[in-house]
Write a structure and sequence with these properties.
Two copies of one chain form a homodimer.
Chain A lengths: L2 H8 L38 H4 L13 H9 L1 H13 L10 H14 L4 E5 L6 E6 L6 E7 L18 E5 L3 E5 L3 H20 L7 E7 L9 H5 L2 H8 L4 E4 L10 E3 L1 E13 H4 L7 E2 L9 H10 L23 H13 L2 H8 L10 H10 L2 E10 L8 E2 L2 E10 L5 H14 L6 E8 L2 E2 L5 H12 L5 E3 L2 E4 L3 H4 L7 E4 L4 E2 L7 E6 L7 H16 L1
Parallel strand pairs in A: 3-6, 3-7, 7-18, 8-16, 9-17
Antiparallel strand pairs in A: 1-2, 2-6, 4-5, 5-20, 9-13, 9-14, 9-15, 10-12, 11-13, 19-20
């Protein structure tokens, strides 16, 4: 496709915010130096005993935050250790790893910051956690926490991914390296620390809190509905003014991008086998048989090739784009502004790329990022995958895929259209195994949480980029869609990078006055809670 | 493609013999009970010391073979142990495993059967072995031996692949299970045993022997030329009447298929990377970037799809089929005969298939097998290949391929045409890394070795199926092509199965009078040597 035709194709599409993808919040750390208290099961406190043993909380909505900020400074090492300990306890749904331990840790942490009610919510696969902190306040905020992390390949890491390691990053400061550092234990830990800092300053939170936590975010949140749609959880959420996802929102230059939503996603495997196809072999056979036998691997390749244009960029699935909402004038204005304020050269360097798709301009690349649904190959696995070759005709081949969805697409509709396409093109035998996914999510720029976060950023000297929709995904639809229709925001000063990648990090001590480290991140959440209460 | 068009497409093609693919011959066994003799380096004899210490050989060309056959019966356990010990010492070129040990074992074995000259032949990668046994006979026979084996996945095996295990196979007899059992240590061990049995019967072999051995057959024999084209090896081969590859030629019903050649092969990897392409990322990035970035994985899929028709069966590479020699009338007659004598239902069951390509008839499937070049996907490896999914846009994807070639195609020409096709279709950046391969090989049905093997089969009550060309490959072109132009045959009674597959086996003691076990296989080679000498 030429740049011109790509450009005109853009007009049919929509736009989305940059990659504040998926964040998660779990507290694994155990401080072995603290005593065991009977009401916190058989283990030690995560937070300082001084906080847990603080005097009865007194109501205090005075927005003089200096004493709380002093408390945050004082407890810096404690809050850092909390995040470090959390990273040491991975929860990885795709590998069924650390689910119970991570869930227990999540529950303990919520108890220790003052939640009176902490309930484990079983689902058809891995559990979630529901918790409430009733501060007797007139308003209530919901907080979404993912407490799982993405898989790792330790060989790609400079330090062991589950051994949180402090490192100096020139020009940036001291960072904490580990899986989950930025996605999302660092930012989530900062929020928990903020609630803790209030408590250890003998204050009640200025708003009540409702926590909805899940352990399956990284496999596409297949059972989040089973947590959120519980009557007790739904009832609690109906009282909320909105939903917060704690995040590290600052880029390397200190800028912040405020997303008004996120793409939906479907994760699935396409599996081609001789058995299901009824052609080709049911087991791997010698490759010389290709002359007389069909190949399930070729069958998969041809099915894949039918999904997109020969450049791999334009989706050819029938009616797949029918529900794609056109980019609005307001969204176009946001994209224009973002294109001016972002550094294209730096971004290309970070991504390791020389060209955008179709050789479009930076502004157009941003519009595509916001507005275009995608069909992506995450991985290919078929036949012999070891060193060198092996002369077999494999009986099975698999493509691991993700589909990103924009409004008004839905996960179930996208999946149905993909299946219908494969059936119509002669690939109906190929198994389409959806492993997770959900609809897109959107929040109005006029909602209270968005206005509040914007005000806080500005008070901190940051003019946020407002962005229609992040290109990554989170299951915000369970909050923003029917029946709750809550506004949902990602918020938090601070910086990190490497989500889903090696050497993921979260900034702890900043050398750059434009970027906040851990203390600034914690402070920003204290500010948010008071601002929402006001 | 409809059956009709497939059928007419057949007329442009040629035909080949069934799957007596790749065979190998190495003797790893060490008999720890024997004494160490100074001239056989520092290790014990592989064969019985009685044989090694036999009196000076006397010339004896009398074709009364009974004493030799008695010797074979007597030494059955010894010859079985030889093959068992050989299996215990794997040589796997693709994994750089056991090369030195396998080469030393090969050389010791050749010394012990009486070769006066045994020379290690270094190549640019793994070595070969050249050996001569001068029996003072007027005629000389060359013997090709591969002493490497295919890789294994032990989890697929019923017993450890390098622990040779005797098992009872109902209706068949006692089989030896292990990697290399039939491809090719069993049949090659039977040939070595035949030479040994002559020696231990105080006879000289009736023909001189020239051994050409390689350790890279399973990676496509990339350096076989560097062994065969040595002046000393070429000089020795020029004196030969032909080349023997010891094989287990009997099917489950006792029938034998005599191949008059084999397809050539090219093994290669197609590697698509963002780095080489200059598009897409240079490292794996978050999959949400698909909206603005090209994907090297999609690029590979589209390149693959360009190579064949949508059913995966018809090659679309420009001019690829130009040199395919039409099937001759003689070959068509052979195929007609083979189709009548083979059991289609049994074969389909063994292969785990319900249909041939294009739903052709059995007869047509055999013609395709003989005559059609193939482009096969051995394996696909790209991006995330572990359990579940991982939302990345991979920077690299690989397809492991093999191309089977028929006369008058050549490996270098097929490779060049593949590269030219990719370049012409916009995939010139995709690396084409050939790891091994060679031209097709053909031998005249009128040559002496073919006539002799046919006579021996018939004397043993077997009417062999004569087959134009086996669909698997071996590097016979180094012998049958310029400048040597030697006839080359695969010969040997006996049966085995599972080459390149789990639970590979070789029949040791047959319950079926129509199929020979190890003793019959050894005897058949004694017969061959005398018949060739006559």
């Amino acid at each position: 496709m030429s740049p011109k035709s790509a450009s005109s194709a853009l007009d049919k599409l929509k736009l989305v915010l940059p990659d504040l993808d998926k964040r998660e919040l779990v507290v694994p750390g155990l401080d072995k130096r603290r005593g065991v208290l009977p009401e916190v099961d058989r283990r030690t406190f995560l937070f300082s005993a001084a906080a847990a043993l603080a005097p009865a909380l007194k109501a205090d909505s005075t927005p003089d935050l200096k004493p709380v900020f002093t408390e945050i400074e004082k407890r810096h090492a404690e809050y850092l250790r909390l995040i470090q300990d959390w990273i040491r306890q991975p929860t990885i749904a795709a590998e069924n790893k650390g689910i119970n331990e991570g869930t227990e840790l999540m529950m303990r942490m919520l108890r220790e910051i003052g939640c009176q009610q902490v309930i484990k919510c079983p689902t058809d696969l891995h559990p979630g956690v529901f918790a409430t902190l009733d501060a007797g306040a007139p308003k209530t905020l919901a907080v979404y926490i993912m407490y799982d992390v993405k898989q790792v390949d330790p060989s790609e890491w400079s330090s062991p991914p589950f051994t949180p390691t402090l490192a100096d990053k020139p020009g940036l400061g001291k960072v904490l390296v580990g899986r989950g550092a930025v996605n999302s234990k660092g930012p989530e830990g900062a929020f928990l620390a903020a609630v803790h800092a209030l408590r250890s300053s003998s204050r009640k939170p200025p708003v009540n809190l409702v926590f909805v936590c899940e352990s399956e975010e990284e496999i596409g949140s297949p059972h989040i509905q089973q947590v959120v749609r519980r009557p007790d959880v739904t009832a609690a959420l109906q009282k909320c003014m909105g939903v917060l996802t704690p995040s590290a929102t600052q880029a390397l230059d200190g800028t912040v991008t405020m997303s008004l939503g996120a793409k939906g996603v479907v994760e699935l495997e396409l599996v081609s086998t001789g058995e299901k196809w009824g052609r080709g072999p049911k087991l791997d056979v010698h490759s010389s048989n290709k002359a007389r036998l069909d190949s399930p691997a070729w069958h998969l390749v041809e099915a894949l090739a039918s999904l997109v244009s020969p450049d791999g960029n334009t989706i050819l699935v029938d009616h797949y784009l029918d529900k794609v909402r056109p980019v609005s004038a307001a969204e176009k204005a946001m994209i224009d502004e973002a294109a001016k304020r972002q550094d294209e050269a730096l971004l290309k360097k970070q991504l390791g790329v020389q060209h955008w798709v179709h050789d479009v301009s930076f502004r157009e690349s941003l519009e595509l990022l916001c507005s275009q649904p995608t069909i992506n190959i995450e991985g290919l696995v078929g036949g012999y995958t070891g060193p060198g070759g092996k002369t077999i005709l494999p009986h099975r081949a698999v493509a691991k895929m993700d589909l990103r969805l924009v409004p008004d697409m839905t996960a179930s509709d996208a999946l149905a259209k993909l299946k219908a396409h494969l059936a119509a093109k002669g690939f109906g035998d190929i198994e389409v195994n959806m492993t997770g996914g959900y609809d897109p999510t959107s929040t109005s720029p006029d909602s209270l949480p968005v206005r509040v976060e914007s005000a806080i950023y500005k008070r901190n000297g940051i003019d946020p980029i407002v962005w229609p929709r992040q290109a990554g995904s989170w299951p915000g639809y369970v909050f923003t869609g029917e029946p709750l229709k809550l506004p949902a925001v990602h918020f938090g000063l601070g910086h990190g990078n490497g989500a889903h990648a090696p050497d993921e990090y979260y900034l702890i001590e900043s050398d750059n006055p434009k970027i906040q480290g851990l203390n600034g991140a914690v402070r920003s959440h204290v500010e948010l809670l008071y601002e929402l209460a006001a």
